[in-house]
Amino acid sequence: MANTDDAHKSENVGIIGSGLIGRSFAMLFAAAGYRPCIYDIKESQLDDALADTRKQLADLEKHGLLRGSLSAAEQHERISTTNDLAECVSDVFYIQECVYEREELKRSVWEKVDPMVGENTILASSASAIVPSKLSEGLVHRNNFIVVHPTNPPFYAPLVEIIPAPWTEAGIVQKVKALMTELGQSPVVLKKEIEGFVLNRIQYSIIGEYMRLLKEGIMSVEDLDKVMTDGLGVRYAFNGPLMTAYLNAEGFYEYGEKYRDMIFGIQKSFGEPIKMEGDILKQMQDEITRVVPMDAIHERRAKRDLRLTALSKLKKEMDRKDSENS
Ligand SMILES: NC(=O)c1ccc[n+]([C@@H]2O[C@H](COP(=O)([O-])OP(=O)(O)OC[C@H]3O[C@@H](n4cnc5c(N)ncnc54)[C@H](O)[C@@H]3O)[C@@H](O)[C@H]2O)c1
Question: Among 53, 55, 118, 272, which one has the highest count of C-beta atoms within 10 angstroms of its own C-beta?
């Protein structure tokens, strides 16, 4: 059941936007015993959200991946919807905004919400790259504002980046971190804001280098993806790049001694970023559609989700064994 200490006097949570991420947050909160209420400007989206979360929760139950102690039906019963913003955000201890990634839109939503909330309500945005200071400057409750950036799909990839604005109270960071842990997510905190946060900066640096290697004719799209799925990605599913390096030598001093000049030399050759447009974009589209044609995308997504489910189960099982042995 939901926590009822001072930090969360109410079980109610407001979710603004009923797309992919709004639905996921609603399910995560419902699984932990909260009562999320989803608001959207499009009425039809709200109906879709209810039908889709019902199906997703039933699928998770079928695969043994449902969180918490409530059944899928009981979790779904906790999710409600509204087309009235005030109803969504009043009497809630936490709001997660999940509208399109457009600064003006997000700012206008928060300007409307700001006068509707109490002094202690936590105001969180799912923004993927827009820094919290740009979204909250000028809000009366800006000290309660924070970005909580999930990884998609949140049930299988539990990482959430927590990014405070310069004026966010330290207590809000701690409360949000505890809340995300309670939901079963894996929170990481940025000590200060930076455009793109961390996950997307790393992701885009990889895609940037992929485009350079394609442009220079070093490798095909199919083989480039294999470098990740059969190489780096396999390692990184269990150990991050820093732990991987540490384990690949007798500690970091030896790793630095052995590899620093090679690493530095390669890093210096990375050069200017390449824009995803024109010939490079066409090459990526042409080559990838030979592997998975456009009319098979749906099928490939289903395969991706099955594999993510299997990996998620394996990781859960290994974590359980680790905690039993510790
Ligand atoms: N999809 C991802 O992989 C992903 C991952 C992490 C974070 N995010 C971030 O989460 C946020 C939402 O992304 P998404 O993928 O769920 O988008 P989406 O397109 O699936 O859904 C956006 C929803 O917002 C609604 N909306 C638009 N204007 C609104 C308004 N004024 N008030 C209320 N609702 C409104 C739309 O009707 C739609 O239902 C974005 O900031 C995005 O960058 C997305």
Answer: 53
